[in-house]
Amino acid sequence: MSRRAAMQMSRFLVRPTRQRLFSTNISKIVVSSNNASNISGPRFTNSGILEVRYWSSIAGEEKQMQAPKLENSGNENATDQGGNAVVSSYWGVAPPKISKEDGSPWRWNCFRPWETYKADTSIDVKKHHEANAFMDKFAYWTVQTLKYPTYLFFQRRHMCHAMLLETVAAVPGMVGGMLLHLKSLRRFEHTGGWIKALLEEAENERMHLMTFLELSQPKWYERALVFAVQGVFFNAYFIAYVISPKLAHRIVGYLEEEAVNSYTEFLIDLENGVVENKPAPAIAIDYWRLPPDSTLKDVVTVIRADEAHHRDLNHFASDIQCQGHELKEYPAPLGYH
């Protein structure tokens, strides 16, 4: 058989099956008909293993086409092209309807009512961990070196400074919790609740950012700065935590001390009228369970209290390890925002 005859023979054999196996139009027509008998039977089993993938894609599309329509359960974020509310579902399971104590719908998807709390504002804003050991001095002066460029850049623009601060402050808890999680898996051991405590810290810091975003939107160059700072800080902190967790926690402790100082200056400018004392955003009132008539000053006060608690938690974690112990030996202060 010549080469030309062989090519013609192969085209003759492939042409009838090519459209049926690889065309997406055929699969859509079959699925829309909702007739299972049209896509089952000997013609699929006799065509070879290539049709297994075709059958899998048809089955997936058929499930999507036959998914039941769910009633609206209060999800305000999802909308279709016509502007009507659309409920996101997970295999036909609708999200639960959540209401406040007064019966009004819960509007936040980033946190739930059981994740809210009343901040403990009975803190010592001037509390400072004395840097006596070499490691403590290294951590302290590292933070002092890093803080001056930000102060020069933002000066008295407290809102923008706070947003940048929170994009950085939410990183250590996530990195520490992740590495402790992996350590627990490797060693088959408990961690005394420290994974959850650090993840709580990261989530709390993120909620600070979500609150400030309701009051001010960062400019393009501030967003670019966040990209650069977060990229450098995440990798640097990751390496530091792998090398020395006690050093990493000490650095965060000093970072939180500076955060407390920054929010104290923010409060002073609010009291002196340098910054307008706006009404508190709704997300802050719901998250910290603040009175409905709360102001920006009340929000900054509870955020400063959160930072003070993070300060104490990280210095405590570093002290545990500096004394030759492991974090799992001392129960973590869960819920200690």
From TrEMBL:
The EC number(s) this enzyme carries: 1.10.3.11
Domain of life assignment: Eukaryota
Keywords, sorted A to Z: Electron transport, Iron, Membrane, Metal-binding, Oxidoreductase, Respiratory chain, Transmembrane, Transmembrane helix, Transport
Keyword Lipoprotein: no
Pfam family, one: AOX
Cellular compartment(s): Membrane
Record InterPro entries: AOX (IPR002680), AOX_sf (IPR038659)
Family statement: Belongs to the alternative oxidase family.
Protein name according to UniProt: Ubiquinol oxidase
Species this protein is from: Rehmannia glutinosa (Chinese foxglove)
Chief place where the protein resides: membrane
Cofactor binding comment, as recorded: Binds 2 iron ions per subunit.
Requisite cofactors: Fe cation
Spans through the membrane: 162-182, 224-243
Cross-referenced CDD domains: AOX (cd01053)
Keyword tRNA-binding belongs to the record: no
Catalytic reactions of this protein: 2 a ubiquinol + O2 = 2 a ubiquinone + 2 H2O
